[in-house]
Amino acid sequence: MSRPSIPARSVRKVLESINGRVAVVGSANADICTRTFELPRPGETVVGSSIVVRPGGKSANQAVQAALLGANVSFVTAVGRDSNAGVVTNSLRGAGVSLAHVEAVDLPTGTALITVDDAGENTIVVSAGANGRANEAFVEGHASAIADAAVVGLCLEIPLDGVLNTAVIAKAHGTQVLLNLSPFMAVPPELIAAADVLVVNETELSDLLGSAVDVDGLAGDHFVQERVAVKLAILGVHRAIVTLGGKGALVLDGHLATVVPAVEVQPVDTTGCGDAFFGTVLAALASGATLFEACQLAVVVAGFAAEGEGAQQSYGSRDKVLRPVGRHR
Fold it and tell me: Which of 246, 265, 248, 255 has its CA nearest to residue 228?
């Protein structure tokens, strides 16, 4: 195990090389957001700010971040025929994401109810809406987007058969599968084994392994890292990134475990930071970066996002992230 710093030169090198082809298959939501002094406890009412509607959805967030960094991104999703669909598609289009595989259906666009407190922490409740149409048959109709990409990004905000079929199509065409096991649910073993790279946070890792993991150990104890790597290998996972919040991220690549430290930021809103991280990994791996290099860049980009409000509107373009790495805003 090693704990390197994040040299600006390495980040710049990876950023300037991003031009690969990425497909993202998944969810698009309108985020209905409010801020409050502190998150309510069960049964408690608190006063929130005015409601703001913003573009979101885990997969849409990931696609936007990858495109802003310079990747050629195709997004496969379903939206409604309502006003919220425009909120979603306008942001995607503005970031440079291809909408050729975005279908309009007769269901409401997916929505997420988001509350953010003064410490930047959040709670999120998602209503699937049109995202529920992205099933096995739907994905089959957009197989060309998956086949044409170097990597495909998946999370779990669409029907599981749609996620599984994406992985099957990707494997048949030599497209790398990156799986973000979020929001966590029990999934078939073949989906886990199909992931070329698994990206999870420490809570999702604990749920996947069926036992608690020690974050401090993951960040600094070689024996804890080794045990986790062995358990993942039994599930068929040989390459993974475990995000550790303020402690950075752990990269597991075969027998090598390396910690990438967090960057120092003043968080304003952590909504969508995990998606910024994942979208960055997609863009970097599609462009030939190593898993470690992709994680180095992803930690920086996610830190940038934490210093702005909301998800997509807080994301940095290549030019913005290329500014001095120590402080990003």
Answer: 255
DSSP 8-state assignment for residue 262: P
Mapped onto helix, strand or coil, the DSSP state of residue 328 is coil
Closest CA to 130 of 75, 181, 81, 74: 81
Q: Which residue matches tokens 């666009």?
A: 109
pLDDT-derived band at 327, boundaries 50, 70, 90: very low
Cβ atoms within 10 Å of 171's Cβ, excluding its own? 14
Confidence check: pLDDT of 326 > 50 = no
Q: Are 62 and 120 in contact (CB under 8 A)?
A: no
Is 287:248 a contact under the CB 8 Å cutoff? no
275 is catalytic: yes
Catalytic one of 31, 196, 269, 275: 275
Task: Count CB-CB contacts under 10 A for residue 266.
Answer: 10
pLDDT, mean of residues 162-190:
97
Question: Is this structure's pTM higher than 0.90?
Answer: yes
Cβ-based neighbour number of residue 55 at 10 Å? 25
pLDDT at 269 over 90: no
